[in-house]
Amino acid sequence: MSLIVSKFGGSSVSDAASINRVADRIVAMKTQGHDVVVVVSAMGDTTDELIDLAEQVVGSSEPPQREMDILLTAGERISMALLAMAIDSRGVPAQAFTGQQAGLITDASHGNARIIDVTPGRITECLGTGSVAIVAGFQGVNPDANDVTTLGRGGSDTTAVALAAGLGADVCEIYTDVDGVFTADPRIVPTARRIERITSDEMLEMAAHGAKILHLRSVEYARRFGVEIHVRSSFSMKEGTHVITPSEEEEGEMEAPIISGVAHDRSQAKVTCVGVPDVPGAAARLFETVAGAGVNIDMIVQNVSVAATGKTDISFTLPASDVALVRAALSLLADELGYDDVLYQDDIGKLSLVGAGMRSHPGVSAKLFGSLRDAGVNIEMISTSEIRISVVTAADQLDTAVRAVHTAFGLDAAEVEAVVYGGSGR
Amino acid sequence: MSLIVSKFGGSSVSDAASINRVADRIVAMKTQGHDVVVVVSAMGDTTDELIDLAEQVVGSSEPPQREMDILLTAGERISMALLAMAIDSRGVPAQAFTGQQAGLITDASHGNARIIDVTPGRITECLGTGSVAIVAGFQGVNPDANDVTTLGRGGSDTTAVALAAGLGADVCEIYTDVDGVFTADPRIVPTARRIERITSDEMLEMAAHGAKILHLRSVEYARRFGVEIHVRSSFSMKEGTHVITPSEEEEGEMEAPIISGVAHDRSQAKVTCVGVPDVPGAAARLFETVAGAGVNIDMIVQNVSVAATGKTDISFTLPASDVALVRAALSLLADELGYDDVLYQDDIGKLSLVGAGMRSHPGVSAKLFGSLRDAGVNIEMISTSEIRISVVTAADQLDTAVRAVHTAFGLDAAEVEAVVYGGSGR
């Protein structure tokens, strides 16, 4: 008998029929003798519909974040109550709990709160009576004000992992609409393989660089507390991908594959400051300004200064949605820094090769660059971490690049196995 | 400067446009210098849609009441957050509060909880900062379990009155889709007049006997705590109807009109037990059985026993929706009581004439019966209280009866003033 925390996203509970399908699945787990805690997102597009209503009401004003959180958390109240009813109607007792009732204590950052403690006394009590506990994802409580908070995008994954950690669960299952984490996006690489096991370090790199299946914060949380995540499909009983956090000792013993997968990201843009005077502190001033605008930059490249002019070009990438912020910030800096021009480019793509094994295998970069050259793909920027190499290409070359690299590193499956169902919940 | 509690029902906040209209109205009150607490119901048909979802999920099973309350209270979370945002976007600070946060403490009767205490500390605090407080209607908290509860039909009216009592508000405004309480339903009697002032005793009789504008429990609460209710239209700035609870002394001084209004009710059915043996205890046994089935009966008539047979007929009225319950209960009693037959009749109507002044004016019944006779309406049953006379007629004679009585007691207005907008919120 295990204690299982299972999270179902919005696409798994989009209507009464799918809620009943999830209920059947949970009843089956319970029948096998497991204790089950279910974390559930809002039904289908509920959250987007509520955001739309708020926009209709406030017009161009910014809605107050505290009230926005009250509004959005209504979605999970609906889905959690319905799922508890569905399970109960099958003769298995079930109780629904808000984030507050489940003990998800957060800070006061409405809209993007951090979990600071988990006190799941009521959940333990509920399980003790033989009931299934249904918990609203995405929400917690700021105990100082006794107000509901939300955890931001991907928040339900984080709720599930935090509860699994707080309850000492054996596994945290994240149900989604694909069979697990793949070596590449099967929509681009039909021969992509499902990854059976991946370390949380690798999963973090994959998530940070475009793999959308798990939200970054939930993986960080799982890594910190040693929670095993099992990413799997709500449409089949197949094994999915286990995301594990080996101890240092275990890590030494593991025969890690050199490469785990190829992530890609189309959401970045590139900014180039042309002709920046090559004087000490110029780059620092530039990036202070960008950071001051609240923008997270990803990759940075600075050309070698051309001796004759004493000027250099500095390029960096950032989320395309933040370009307007950077544009405003840099326009204030033009006189002070005295650069010649700023170029904005959003038709770029980023490919990231991730694998813990590349730590001990030289030659991975050479093979990557060679495969791209053979495929006729031009590399615009490069950045690396200990277990990742990323390159920026033109957007229209990204698919070609992903397929070429996937093949070059021997990741292709003998036959196509992936079935892709579409978008995923939060 | 006054402290005003204003309640807006579902039809007043059915979409973004109507929420913005309510926001304008509240901002105007605030601009006039009043402190304002707003109680709001779920948007339009939200509650019915949520009930429908629950039915889809549980099929023929009975959904657990605790989870049903979690589900239904999502509706008020949405409307209260949106209304707070709308007011805030007009430059007037506003904060939304759940029933729990507003201190509406109830018992544990999920689906039909009673308010046992009101501790509105957060609301007072909010008003102290110059903000408008928006409170979710219809919901409270059972503090023993820390679970949300709902107050049943008409619950938002009760929330508003309870908050007005707890805060010592100057008035509790109930906004609705008609101009106030009328001397009769203007859909039946186009010349019905708006009542300017009515005592809570009279309003209770009107509400208990078919006038749907205020829920019975909210009037009971207002009467007990001396809260003045102002029923008025959310579509105009006209004065509505003031429901007041005069002290005994004031009551003595008041020049009460003999008759306040004519209520009617089509939702009742009549049950007749034919040939009940006229022995001591037979009626008691009969009504014990009906009460045991959880049915509230209204009027009772027992014929004079026919000496030759030693048998009598007993008729009573009850909500038509409870007929199935009574039918089941009586079928178990047939052998024991030995009556000849039971007749069920749901094509009846009830007319009630209400007025505190009839206490001191003899002849009201005679005038009532005379006007019905002149209109050709047959009276099937009669019941009276100190300030009310009710008669049961055939359903198809009810409208004729209401019009005849309204005219006979001089209630007709010189010209038609009422505008009727349709259904009302909960």
TrEMBL record, chains A, B:
Residues annotated as binding ATP? 7-10, 176-177, 187
Residue sites binding substrate per the record: 47, 76
The biological pathway it contributes to is: Amino-acid biosynthesis; L-lysine biosynthesis via DAP pathway; (S)-tetrahydrodipicolinate from L-aspartate: step 1/4; Amino-acid biosynthesis; L-threonine biosynthesis; L-threonine from L-aspartate: step 1/5; Amino-acid biosynthesis; L-methionine biosynthesis via de novo pathway; L-homoserine from L-aspartate: step 1/3
Cite the GO molecular-function annotations of the record. Answer: aspartate kinase activity; ATP binding
Q: Does the keyword Metal-binding apply?
A: no
Instruction: Write out the GO cellular component annotations.
Output: cytosol
Q: Which GO terms describe its biological process?
A: diaminopimelate biosynthetic process; homoserine biosynthetic process; lysine biosynthetic process via diaminopimelate; threonine biosynthetic process
Reactions the enzyme catalyzes = L-aspartate + ATP = 4-phospho-L-aspartate + ADP
The alphabetized UniProt keywords are: Amino-acid biosynthesis, ATP-binding, Diaminopimelate biosynthesis, Kinase, Lysine biosynthesis, Nucleotide-binding, Transferase
Q: What is its EC number?
A: 2.7.2.4
User: Which InterPro entries does the entry mention?
Assistant: AceGlu_kinase-like_sf, ACT-like_dom_sf, ACT_Aspartokinase, ACT_dom, AKii-LysC-BS, Asp/Glu/Uridylate_kinase, Asp_kin_monofn, Asp_kinase
Domain of life of the native organism: Bacteria
* Pfam families xrefs: AA_kinase (PF00696), ACT_9 (PF22468)
| Protein family | Belongs to the aspartokinase family.
Q: What does this protein do?
A: Catalyzes the phosphorylation of the beta-carboxyl group of aspartic acid with ATP to yield 4-phospho-L-aspartate, which is involved in the branched biosynthetic pathway leading to the biosynthesis of amino acids lysine, threonine, isoleucine and methionine.
Q: Which NCBIfam families match?
A: asp_kin_monofn, asp_kinases, PRK06635.1-1, PRK06635.1-2, PRK06635.1-4
Q: What is this protein called?
A: Aspartokinase
